[in-house]
Amino acid sequence: MTRTAYVRPYRPADRKDLADVCVRTADNGGDSTHLCPDPGLMPALFAEPYAHLEPELVLVLDDGSGRAVGHVLGTADTRRFVDAFRTVWLPLVTDRFPEAEGEAETPTETMTALLHRPGRMILPEPDDHPAHLHIDLLPPWRRKGYGRELMNAFLDALHRKGVRAVHLSMLTANTPARAFCDRLGFRVVDVPVPGALTCLGRSTEGAEPARWAGSGVASPGEDPGRRSGGVRA
Asked: Which CA distances in Å does 228 have to 95, 213, 216, 217?
């Protein structure tokens, strides 16, 4: 029997897959294993804090066997998330990734410096785009419509929470990811970001109907029994 991939809420058992997808897509959409000797660094930056702090806003693409081969994750409120990242998440990973002294000279030192500067996530202007996201898909699952399904499910989840708009930051050089975001209605948010990055944003309204597992029954992460009724894609 052919298994069908589908979007579903994150489960704690997905944590290893979440980290694996992050590592294998963190170098401008490609494998970042060669950049950081410790494979836990990229997930500690771009995946695991979201699963720890806001698991209800983590959705995965299940390949049909229970394995997560892609994900979309983020926060409904970037400022609140930064506070929690600093006070709750950093103490959990500082021993493994201590803050380096001096200027960063290697990819590991650069990523570690970012880990210890969560305030970088607060851009000067997008208070009208309070949410932000990361979307990642393993290469074999790209260009098959799954990225769109993940994004629509995430936008739906934010809209249900009353969040009006979301933003993301991406490498300007990643033209395939930019084309994907353009097709989904993201537009440039004019804020000062490093030259290598572009900030994009869009309203949570007007997304195509979400078709993730449980949509129409419960919000992501919610127990259906309690009711009666990030870009590398």
From this structure: 45, 17, 11, 8
Range with the poorest average pLDDT among 43-57, 103-117, 189-203: 189-203
Residues in a beta bridge with 188? 200
pTM above 0.70, yes or no: yes
Average pLDDT over residues 22-34: 92
Residue 166 exposure: Cα atoms within 13 Å on the Cβ side = 32
Phi, psi for 175 (deg, rounded to 5): -65, -35
- Whether pLDDT at 84 is above 90: yes
Tokens at 197, concatenated: 């990055």
Long-range contacts of the stretch 220-229 (C-beta < 8 A, 24+): 220/9, 220/10, 220/56, 220/57, 220/58, 220/59, 220/153, 220/157, 221/9, 221/10, 221/55, 221/56, 221/57, 221/58, 222/56
Q: Strand pairing partners for 171?
A: 197
Residue 192 banded pLDDT, cuts 50, 70, 90? confident
